[in-house]
## 1
Amino acid sequence: MATSDEHGRGRVRSAAVAPANWTERLSEQGFAYVLLVPTLLLVSTMALWPLVSTFEMSLRADALFSAEYVGEFVAFENYAELLTGQRNAILGSPFLDFSQPFQSALTVTLIYVAIAVTLETVIGFGQALVLDQSFRGRRWVRVAILIPWAVPIAIQGLIFWLFFQPGIGVGTDVMQSLGVFSANPLINTTDTLIIVIVADVWKTSAFMALLILAGLQSVDRSLYDVAKVAGASKSQQFRYITFPLVLPALLVALLFRTIQSMRVYGIIETTGGCSTLPSLTCMVVSTFRSGRYATSAAVAFITAGIVALVALVYIVKFADLEVGA
Amino acid sequence: MASQTVEEGESDDGPIAQRAQEAIRNPGDAYQFLFYVVTAFFLVTTLFPFYWLLVLALTPGDRMTDIGLLPNGFNPASFVEMFQRLPFHVYMFNSIVIALTTTVIVLLVASFAGYAFGRLQFRGKTALLLVLLAISYFPPAAFIIPLFQFFTGNVEILTLPAVGTIESPNWFNTPGAMVTPFSALFLPLSIFILTTFYSQIPDGLEDAARVEGATRIGALFRVIIPLSAPGVATAGVLTFIGVYNEFFISFLMTDGQAQNWAPIVWGVVNYQGQYQAFYNLMAAASIVGVLPVVILVVMAQERIVSGLTAGALKE
Amino acid sequence: MSQNSSSGADSGPGASSSRRRFVKAVGVAGAVGLAGCQDGSGPAAGTGTGETGDGTGGDGGGGGTVEMAMPSNVTDRAEDTRQALYDAGLSEDVEVTFLSTSEISGDVEAQYRSWLNAGRETPDVFRMDSGWTIPFIVRDQLVNLSEHLSDEATSMLDEHYFEAPLESARAPAQAVGGGATDTDTASGGGGGPRGELYGVPWQVGFPTIQYRKDLVTDAGFDPEGENWATEPMTWQRFSEVISETHGNADVQYGFNWQGTDYVGLACCTFNEFMSTWGGAYFGGRDTLFGPVGDRPVTVNEEPVHQALAMVRTLIHGSDDEYALDGYQQISPNAVLEWTEGPSLSPFTNGNAVALRYWPSGIFEAATAFEESGDLSPDDLGTMPIPYAVTEDESEYEGIGGTASALGGWHLTVNPNSQNVDAAVQVIEATMQQSFRTFQFSELGYLTGDQRLFDPENVGDVDPWGPHLETLRVAGENAIPRPVTVVWPDQSSQIASRVNAVLAQQQAPEEAMSALAQSLEEIEQSV
């Protein structure tokens, strides 16, 4: 027999779980939508609405003489002029100039992404494999390997800028005597590209390692025992157990890392500067700083379009692998 | 935890030929050696720039030339001076609060979304995922003007007949102006991570929990999340670090003074004068600033370990 | 970090503790009199509200709160600054508060831009870099001070202030060239009638050449006797002097300056090299600030080519393909990657013969020499920037002879402020002699009042004393950067091309021809 006390508690408890109970009665689709309400709310107000607003700005003209952000409506004139190279003087570096491909933001960005993401993934995977083992002091090795990701971009850039700044750091002397760099690496496009790649790989291998490690640690250990009993070698274990099970996490890491790399800006700005090493987001920020908000918005959308194309490669190839259930 | 045991490493003495023969006889030992070499390599390469940062911090301000492997002089006072020059602890506090709040919100919202995307079928799933992904295609500069207008009370949301115009709130210089946009902008990554991990939990486990009377949401919190502890912890760590170090949006949403919720990168930037910067103070501040993150990572790793050894598997 | 904005001259926040020591040692605080400098404006202390004359009148003594945006070395001394304002005659009804801003010019501009666009009411008084005040004027985002300042204040500005800083705070000529697409501004831009003043100089910066007097003397030269402090020499002689001194001395660097690809190269360092060769970006001084789109682009002219060739010779010596005869190799390769900070350290460490730097460098060097064991502030000499072409020989009016890139900050008033009158009162208080004295001796800022550059007026303010004459010459020959709404775009193009030429990556004529084309496109883009 329930006492009045238990009745009271029961009423409170049932009130607390009432929403959960109510959701039980929904269909799968309905439940899904309910779960997604907070996401949709946040994202539509804080991310989608601003993007729509920015897109609207990109359909207007720049207004350098006005206190307003943008001027009159000009439809797609900004996009047209940007893509046909008529605004190269304003952009700082050409968007894509076939006569000087390596001074073009698009080429430089793509080269950077290809090299940096490859290196990060390989190194990050190696780091994750190491961290997956159990050994004494693992906890601190883990922290040490993950520290670079905890360093803000401004500091990451500062470290490398100071290291290669003549008079302050020894980097230029060392690299010049090795014959790798020119005398002034920070104003040389190729040298700065190398510096930026090294700085980026240093920092973001940790990101890849974190995600891949999470994937590795979710692998059921008993599978390895079974494999050992069956006589599988280490590389076979890796190929048939580890890799397939880690693949989803690896793909998420790759996808987001590639997208983030396409948007590289901070590390360039704080080392060699955007005029030494142009990138897509460099152009967005420089036009933004000049007060050309409409052009900046248009460049941002063009950039997003290019990033979408690159991301599409991942999505199309691995669509079925990504989302399970 | 891993099924491979760790043997004591053999001594490094002895001629190479002898070693090679041992390696051929005992491949396990060779792996061992390789493992330590690789680990050492990773440690050195990841820690060297950070070490150099420490060297910078310890260099006296007037001896900042040709800094190589060791500081020219030893000046630990920079770790004290940084607090005298700026209330750096306040900046750190601001960042920690904003980052923690955002992480909690993101993990909660992303868990719901991850369950929906990862374990349920519904119309519009792919489209919605693509929209979420597309948000990360844009640099922050594409968001900031509308967001700034919004949070300085300049946007008219609705005009209701009786009430009048509802304007956006003026949250300039408050944490709300940063937590809210960050929660939205850091959602896509966490949603994708959690979706991946939640989808890998076998249905049987969830059904077992439901059989015992748990609701679907209950099953989410009591079975799925604990079993996905590595993924949840990773999403949490990544979100925390991302918000903690964010500068672009925070630059606009506060006026940069510590008492107005300016985050940590603002603090580090403020050690710069118009032309010269106190590089040693900036370095010291960066090192001190990384400490909360280190603590967080250590704690999160503990959670991963305990989550797995808790053994919630019933089969 | 490589893109730190330029301009301005502050004593460097780093020196504040040692600066206080300095000032106390000399016992300057409050002891600096300005003999013979009674002017009509400015109330004697204690007579209450400054006479604001027509136009403003007292707002009934209601006062109000005025928030000033100031960097940390002012806000750290908020109480003293406030007291100095009251001592200068500011009514006690006006309450002054401070908003601490970053010191990085570009960040401050971005903040003001967004605050003004959002219509924020505070801060009431902005501190705006003279290198980007004009676009705010043109966009009608500042209060027209010509309409609010008292007659005495206005006449003080006209009579006693350096011309160049004032020019950078006035509404420019015909703000809009042809082809305005924004109907709001098609009739000639905002900012009211041309020539009206929108900002009062708070602080000024005129770069000079600092050098090691002891090393130069050891090499056999006679800086005192030849009056180097006030008589500019030619670049050719300068390169000889430095070259010989460097050869004779055991220091690492010769002539340091800031030549990396950043805003400072376009606005200031190269602007000086070019102007001292009689060259200009956009013609003479009357087309400096506009009209955009309707003025000549003059970068592809002989003086600019010569200047580039000379600088290349200074860096790379006579082996350079475009080397000029008679100029020695005196600058290290590192100047091509240096901003202000890294170029200053070798000089303050005693490891360079000469340095081109903002006035704060004088302070830093003197302090460093004082604190070092083997040097003293007497070993620091200053001279105006050398020249190659005199003003008469130059094609453009007002350009040629020595030149010093204009830096510094203005005080402007927020048009959305609730207390415009009180804000103007605060600004007028800062113009008073007693406040300027406080600013100079306590806060370490050079101000725009020419009288404060006369050692007779100011007394012996360490360490500025011996260098004030040089700074005055520099100020009289200050050349502002061509600030317009399109200057940010143009400046990055200029810096990029000039740095490429100096780094031997491009030929001078080819690069300047391409640059002229880019600049013209940008001019026509509005």
Note: Chain A has one domain: 70-82+92-322.
## 2
Amino acid sequence: MEPLLPQNRDPSSRAFRAARPRLDSKTAKNGAGWTTLAVLAGMAIVLRAGDAIPGWISGVPRGVHICASVEEAERRTGVLLGNVRKDLTDYPFIADGIRATARPIPAVAIAMQGGEGKLTFLRSHGGEIPVALHPPLPSFHEIAVPLGPGLSASLKAERQSDGSVWQDLEWADSTGRTALRFNGRTVELLRVARQLAEDER
Amino acid sequence: MGRRAAETILHGIVAALVVMVLLRAGRIRAPEIRLRFWLLAMGLPLGGTPLFWLLAPWRLGDRFRDDWALFSASHFTPWAFHGVELAKASALLLGLAGGALFLRDVIPYVLDFRRGRAKHQAVTAPPPALASAAERAAAALSIPVARLAVVTSKRSILICRGLRRPIIVASTGLCAMLTPDELEAAVAHEMTHAKHRDPAFGWGLMLVRGLCFFNPAVQLAARAAAAEIEARADHSAAHVMGSAKAVTSSLRKLSGIDSAPAPGTWRGFRLAAIEERGQALLDGERVAAATSPWILPTTAIGLGVILFLTVA
């Protein structure tokens, strides 16, 4: 497109003469190329940052889904949780407390609040419970406890960042691993764990 | 279905934003090039997004959303307001905005079309000034003279219509109102529309807008594309005339800008846009900068990748 400034008018013709480019055209073309790449990269960054907002606000890592029900968690991961609600009737689920992830190993975490304290139930299918659901805490004591015939669990006393002490009980069976994190009495934790282990058998 | 419509809206917004920023940051002024960018912003959500669904249905799965996607609206799903999911509510509001934008433009468009239908009005022979203006414009544009139809009306009517064979419809009121130079400029503007088959293009745009009536980004991109078509015709008319003055002068007269519009009214906004359009012509602001031919394909590929990685 030619310029329209009156001073560029060619008196011998009705058409305008092309204006001299303000910039060296090669420079302008290179600049436009970099601008294009910068705009595209900027949009990718904006989208990625936007995607991270829910995680920043709720503290839920990427790849972890908040499920509306136990059934949805089972559907997403394939981890069977049939006995959880039956065995843990004293511990109602916390709102948005059911979280599931499919990678690296399918696993589910359910946060509950009962009269004895806060309890988090975790179960994976086939291996270690992913760190996204079961972040490691510094433990200061660890023992093995029997849960039933031929089944023992590892019980750890762990300290949270706020200084509170939690108990972490974890055991493995043929299908995967189960863990309970509890901030109440050890006796209650073992009672719940034995009931779950017995039903799993 | 709802999720796919939401993805089309999301892709439209992303594409329109990229194009808007790129045109501004890259100082791309030429209407012809700007038009292509806006068409890209419209075309990607309309053509590219369904292609993604067809060729890569696994994009909608959790694995892709969590491991590969740049953005997944499903990550906002747990957020709700009074029991309504935020993501769904946003999509619904955007859909309503898209519908409102579509209706806002389609109604005047249809009315304009009806107004330009010469066969429903008294037709008279083109005045010599109009006929000679059309001949000069056609010669300058290297096209055959478009058909002319003159309707007897005091109103200033000048429109190019006709899907297959464009026809320029003018009114006797218009011929009386404009000076010979202004008339020639206005006719050259319409001739440019005829040259580029803009009436058919306009209907195509409306068809796309109708298909994506729920998509506000497509609606806005289509409006921007229409504005660039007008800018292209303005520039062409200025070249034909050898001066932008006659074009801007005719624009002002045809829009009635000198009859002091009420500030803050919708008409006031429209006239302000026309004033801006004329000023851009006079300033030579839209002088074509050197633009690499690779910018558009690069943008198309880059945007395609970004949209592929953006899931509703």
Note: Chain B touches chain A through 51 residues (CB under 8 Å).
